[in-house]
Amino acid sequence: MIPRISRKDATPVEMIPGLVRRTLATGERVMMCEFTAEQGVYIPSHSHPHEQVGVVLEGRVEFDIEGETFVANPGDSYAIPGDVEHAARFLAPTRLLETFSPPRESYR
Q1: Which residues contact 47 (CB under 8 A, 6 or more apart)?
Q2: Cα 48–Cα 53–Cα 58 angle in degrees, nearest 5
Q3: pLDDT, tens digit (0-9, with 9 covering 90-100), for 50-81
């Protein structure tokens, strides 16, 4: 049987105030999550061994990846290699769809 998760059944987890994650699907080598953020939420600079690829579904987010800053708007995609320092500031209420490879155990 192929595992399926309806968005309504994905448990919302507040990562930090104003930032909610829903883990939508997890495979052997990749994981998909939806993030919703309130305007003004800031994720401080951090790194992790997982490759992170995402798309902005709604809103605007400013990324700082190893000192390079850019703003991503709806429809824009990005790829952050593993072990690379990155931060994010949400400039509007935002919804992202992100994948992580390998899956993040702490997000299961």
Answers
A1: 82, 83, 84, 85, 86
A2: 120
A3: 999 999 999 999 999 999 999 999 999 999 99
User: Token digits for 99?
Assistant: 């994948």
Q: Please, which residues bridge with residue 22 across strands? A: 12, 34
Q: How far apart are CA 31 and CA 20, in angstroms?
A: 16
Contact 73, 60 (CB under 8 A): yes
- Residues forming beta bridges with residue 67, ordered by sequence position: none
For residue 40, the one-letter residue type is G
- H helices of the chain, in order, are none
- Per DSSP, the chain holds a count of helices (H) and strands (E) of 0, 10
> Which residues in the chain land under pLDDT 70?
1-2, 4
List, in order of start, the domains of the chain with CATH numbers: 11-94 (2.60.120.10)
Q: Return d(Cα 23, Cα 75) in angstroms, integer.
A: 20
Q: Which of 44, 48, 45, 36 is nearest to 105 (CA)?
A: 48
